[in-house]
Amino acid sequence: MLSFYVALSAALFVLDMRFHALEFLRQGVSVIADPLQYAAQTPLRLAEEGHAYLRALEEAEEEIERLKAGQLAIAPEFNRLRQLQAENAELRALLALNQRESVSGQAANVLRSARDPFARRVYVDKGMQDGIVAGQPVIDDKGVVGQITRVFPFSAELTLLTDKNLAVPVQIQRTGQRSVAFGLGDGQMELRYMPTSADIVVGDLLHTSGLDEVYPSGFQVAKVTLVTRDIANSFASIIAEPLASVETRSAVIILNVHKTLQHPAEEETPGPPSRSRRKR
Amino acid sequence: MQTPSHDSKRILRPARPWFIALSLFIALLLGMSPTRQWPFMPDWVMLTLCFWNVREGRTMRMKSAFFLGIIMDVADGAALGQHALAYVLASYTASSISRRMLWLPLAQQMLLMLPIFLVFTALQIFIRLMAGENFPGWESFISPFVTALLWPPVSLLLLLPQYQPEERDENRPIL
Predict the structure, then answer these.
(1) Contact at 8 Å (CB) between A103 and A216?
(2) How many residue pairs bridge chain A and chain B with CB atoms within 8 Å of each other?
(3) How far is B35 from chain A (nearest CA, A)?
């Protein structure tokens, strides 16, 4: 009996880790496990919500004032943005460039974080029922948060930018240089394979380059916090901190980019610079 | 209260199956509570499984350890089989040392259980490392010690419904 269950566990482990063949089993068990987990977290959530409600009442009024002021402050810029967008579309048409894909999304709430101290993953309250598919990028009001990695009937697993297994193709805003940012697992990200001579300084902003056709281009990702150039290594060690409140947020937007996900091989946006050069 | 011995005036009845199921269910709920921030939280499911395997080794089936493990794997987003393997092996070890253990007072039982909890927590961490995760830090080894410390109180709590006085008084329904 013992050897049977040990062998079964080991087989499951290999199938899951090496071949990712057990998603259906995981989805099935999650139908049982999700409500249980929801129930288990209810006491703490109620306590937190009660506390938060009392504080929120006081803070809400302040916040409304602040937001009103903020809205007024960005109004001029916003008005001009409309005009710039139109102008940009016109210019792009003149240059015969692809239009930037417009993005829409659906809001989701973070249900809970994975109980596991190893993982930078959280669960959100949208799943198969809402048409979520694995691979959709997730943002919040400040920038990219991460990516949907597993979908269950009523929830989905969101792997955060800072997870060790996540990488995002980015572009340095100041110089336009492209790179890839890897999660470090401790709330930070790293730009690997950048030559020591690369033009990058502390404070540079990184935004998505759109090259992977998963993340649409132009979303803020991170800010460079540390650049170490050691002659002994051929690459500079560059640490960046995510701009989005990656580890603490509670509401996120899951972007719909089904179109680009379903036809990845077609001639979609292979990077504006190369295109324009060819046309000129 | 003390562990049952030949001079005790109480009879220890066999545990009712629904009570075993209920305690495992509560352990599962406790295990799923949002305790990610605290590495010192005990592994409730392993503790309860080991307890019932020591006490009622003949009636416990390894199946329950396996399925509880799978549910914990899914709840944790861990590799399937990680908890299942650890729980199955821990249950087996616990039931195989149960005859030697039950003679001993609770404090010594606790010391005997500690290596079991330690080894199988280490096994889970090892499986995670094989799956390519980061090492979670030494503080995750606090958890098995806390689990072992909880052995005496949990034993007393789970034995409580099985105690019955030698002479039953029909006019006094509760024990």
Answers:
(1) yes
(2) 111
(3) 6
Chain-chain contact of B71 with A8 (C-beta, under 8 angstroms): no
> Each residue of A49-86: pLDDT tens digit?
888 888 888 888 888 888 888 888 888 888 888 888 88
Inter-chain contact B74–A29, Cβ cutoff 8 Å? yes
| CA dist., res. A134 & res. A152, Å (int) | 10
Q: Which residues contact A176 (CB under 8 A, 6 or more apart)?
A: A273
Among all chains, which residue has been given the structure tokens 């409309």? A82
Q: How many CB atoms lie within 10 A of CB B159?
A: 16
Closest chain B C-alpha to A189 CA, distance in angstroms: 15
Handedness of CA B68, B74, B80, B86 (dihedral sign): negative
Do A30 and B74 lie within an 8 Å CB cutoff? yes
Q: Do residues A198 and A177 make contact, with C-beta atoms less than 8 angstroms apart?
A: yes
Confidence (pTM) = 0.63
pLDDT digits (tens, 9 = 90+) for B151-168: 999 998 998 888 776 666
Which tokens in the block code for residue A277?
Answer: 């050069």
Determine the Cα–Cα distance for residues A204 and A177; give it in Å rounded to an integer: 11
Is A113:A122 a contact under the CB 8 Å cutoff? yes
CA distance A267 to B2: 77
Joined tokens for residue B47 = 């503790």
